[in-house]
Write a structure and sequence with these properties.
It is a single chain. This protein is an all-alpha fold. It has 2 domains: 38 residues, no CATH class; 129 residues, Cytochrome c-like domain (Cytochrome Bc1 Complex, Chain D, domain 2, Orthogonal Bundle), CATH 1.10.760.10. The chain is built from 7 helices and no strands. The termini are far apart. The model has no long low-confidence stretch (mean pLDDT 85).
């Protein structure tokens, strides 16, 4: 075998491998890994919220326990259970219960026991749920599901309407369970 044949194979392999990303970009795929697409303005708008603990960034809208019960049954119960107990076999976490368990040997992390601010419920549900269609719920539906979950956890009354102002006013059971980060380079919602 001549000395040029291994060099030729190495050069051909390098060119062949190097052409993959270029071809992918020509076909509309971007990024350093050669897959994916740039999201549309509509796709970004579905998840472009900045829900702060004080309610800043929450969109207009409102929802009730009764409305949330309907949305939950249609969109959430298949994974999280009819009683919000979770269905581990399908990956649906338990949403309520566990209050006071975090310092125990068997902590149960749920919305009720762990999350420090009710606005996180809206933010997470809006961005990530339902699992099969994240961002598909309207703002009113998300406020309603938030009201349903919080009332089922005994955190709010069933007759409370949730909106940007009332959601931010909810006192979560674990609100003081986190240690503030005192580093000067960290933004702490002030």
């Amino acid at each position: 075998m001549s000395m040029h044949k291994p060099l030729f194979i190495a050069v051909a392999a390098a060119l062949g491998l190097g052409g993959g990303p270029a071809l992918a970009q020509q076909q509309g795929y971007g990024g350093p890994y050669g897959f994916g697409t740039t999201p549309s303005e509509q796709e970004l708008a579905a998840v472009d919220i900045d829900a702060m603990p004080d309610g800043r960034g929450l969109p207009p809208g409102s929802g009730t326990y009764a409305q949330g019960e309907e949305v939950y049954a249609a969109q959430c119960a298949a994974c999280h259970g009819e009683q919000l107990q979770g269905i581990p076999e399908v990956g649906g976490d338990k949403l309520i219960g566990g209050r006071g368990s975090l310092a125990s040997g068997s902590p149960v992390k749920t919305i009720e026991s762990y999350w420090p601010y009710a606005t996180i419920v809206f933010d997470y549900v809006k961005r990530a749920m339902p699992l099969h269609a994240p961002g598909s719920l309207s703002d009113d539906e998300v406020y309603a599901v938030s009201a349903f979950i919080l009332a089922e956890a005994g955190i709010i009354e069933q007759d409370q309407v949730m909106d940007a102002e009332s959601l931010a006013a909810v006192e979560m059971p674990n609100r003081d369970g986190f240690i503030p980060d005192a580093r000067p380079d960290v933004f702490n919602y002030e």
